[in-house]
Automatic annotation (TrEMBL):
NCBIfam families for this protein: 3a0106s02, permease_CysT
Name this polypeptide is given: Sulfate transport system permease protein CysT
Assembly mode: The complex is composed of two ATP-binding proteins (CysA), two transmembrane proteins (CysT and CysW) and a solute-binding protein (CysP).
UniProt-listed SUPFAM superfamilies: MetI-like
Location(s), subcellular: Cell membrane
Task of the protein: Part of the ABC transporter complex (TC 3.A.1.6.1) involved in sulfate/thiosulfate import. Part of the ABC transporter complex CysAWTP (TC 3.A.1.6.1) involved in sulfate/thiosulfate import. Probably responsible for the translocation of the substrate across the membrane.
Species for this entry: Nitrosovibrio tenuis
Amino acid sequence: MHTFKQHSVLPGFNLALGFTLLYLSLIVLIPLSAAFIRTASLTWAEFWDVVTTPRVLASYRLTFGASFAAALVNAVFGLLVAWVLVRYRFPGKKLVDALVDLPFALPTAVAGIALTALYAGNGWIGQFFEPLGIKIAFTPLGVFVALTFIGLPFVVRTVQPVLEDIEAELEEAAATLGANRLQTFSRIIFPTLFPALITGFALAFARAIGEYGSVIFIAGNMPMISEITPLLIITKLEQYDYTGATALAVVMLIISFVMLLIINLLQWWSRRRRASA
């Protein structure tokens, strides 16, 4: 007879499992279920009309498109930052390592105001792009910048410990056997890092989808152009349209769940393939 109980230093499996299920129910399951229950008061035709208006569809495209693009950029440059922090020694390394966590600690409103000040047409950075006809603040590009800013630490902190566990001797052994740098990275290092990189990408993507505070300052919030879905949800709540707000929330939940499921399946496939290699 099989049992799920396993030996542990801390006793009380049944009590611990009960508290775990209770906590998850109160924090995750019940709030999410409430959104679905509230939305169930709409007929299918009413629900479809709410979630497929041109303004809402434009917000979906911006929210998910910018989130995906920002997570993809962070996957590339987050790997580079983690590599530099692990493989190299240089003055100010601890300061750079601490700066990576700044988006974690910085209030989102402060981040939004700071980014807007930097990338506005008269800002320190925006003033160099304005003469070139590139407007960053108050455009979809500004949304992308904000989501990239808040998502970077998720990739770096996910990849960094895995990279630290990869011994430099493996690279030396590969070089001894005649592998060049590209072959060493693509065949030895990257397959090991890939599951962690996918995890970091998924975390950055999920964080970006729900981001609100830092985006609304730099986005401009123009309907059909730079308006994100979380802002639409807040707008409906302010108008006391709770059913419409929960309808949009349900759509975002479903799309987010499907995309994260695909990412997790890809991660599982990568680990299984590496284990069987």
